Amino acid sequence: MASSFPFTASCFFLFALVIFSEGQSSVPALYIFGDSLVDVGNNNYINDCIFKANYPHHGIDYPGRKPTGRFCNGKNSADLLAEKVGLTASPPPYMSNTSDLFLEGASFASGGSGLINSTGGFLRMCMSLKEEVEYFTALHDRLVQQFGTTRAQQHLSKSPFVVVIGSNDIFNYFYKAEIRVVKTPDQYIHEMIAILQGVLTELHNLGARKFVVAGVTILGCTPALRLEINNQECNADVNTMVTKYNQNLVTMLARLQSDFNDINYTYIDTFAVVEGILQNPTIYGFKEAKSACCGSGKLNADMYCTPFAIFCRNRTDHIFWDKVHPTEATASIVVDTLYSGSQPYVSPINLQQLIAL
């Protein structure tokens, strides 16, 4: 019994440092949920998942120039968020060590993930959002067991919970005719919103008090969907559905805050941010707004970025890395807006203001 005391005491000391240190980080931790936009490598550890980014040319601009499982040329939004709030490192993939305490947070995000459980099914065993929350629940229980309810709650209440999800569900709706046969766009959106509301409520019950929720981006203007239009313009039907989903999301978040008056949140209208970039790319330093940097064929969108794909020399010229994912340069603009931007792009407050509460 005596031999375990130094270990336990050191754990409490470390935990106290994480909670109360002011100079190094503005938050104790980041807990990130969602899809490939914020996956930092979880799919690498899911053996049956075929949707992975642990091969070239992914990571060509990431420190070390190695693929890490990020669907990006360099850092993705999870990495950039961690830098913004001053964490010592990006939240690691939870699946890399499912027994760790992850005192500075973790990414539970899984490429291919969706709100609806079946969304990632065609990618074989990639995690749904429901499964991501189940893994967080296990982590929550370990934190409570190690540090007690009060200390764990203090830690979690100050830590932003970031949710970036929904794109794959909407892709699924348009790519799978069997879904459209049984559900109208409005019915499908209602299902998505109901699931997300349930997830946010569950996270609240587990101690989350500060949420960062991203609206779905302008999917109809990705190279993948431009490719399906003869003139390579944006897919208006997809963008209309995304807009409706985002409108319902904003309404749901306001309702959730009224139901739980201890919740605060930041919503980022990713659609509007990226739409602005697409409309005026040169203002943001981009030269190519339609084609992907890495891929093949028309718009470099006939295939995902693989070791056999061609890729552009200057990634900062491109808005899109592959046929659906943004470059680090684009993600950086989105994260900058999230952190210190103003309405109509972020509401009701930005991340910097959320952290200060």
Automatic annotation (TrEMBL):
Gene3D superfamilies: SGNH hydrolase
Xref: Pfam families: Lipase_GDSL (PF00657)
Signal peptide start and end residues: 1-23
Protein origin, superkingdom: Eukaryota
Molecular-function annotations in GO: hydrolase activity, acting on ester bonds
Any Gene Ontology biological process: lipid catabolic process
Protein keywords: Hydrolase, Lipid degradation, Lipid metabolism, Signal
CDD domains in UniProt: SGNH_plant_lipase_like
SUPFAM superfamilies: SGNH hydrolase
PANTHER family: GDSL LIPASE/ACYLHYDROLASE FAMILY PROTEIN (AFU_ORTHOLOGUE AFUA_4G14700), PTHR45648:SF30
Family recorded in the similarity comment: Belongs to the 'GDSL' lipolytic enzyme family.
UniProt-recorded name of the protein: OLC1v1005973C1
Species, as recorded: Oldenlandia corymbosa var. corymbosa
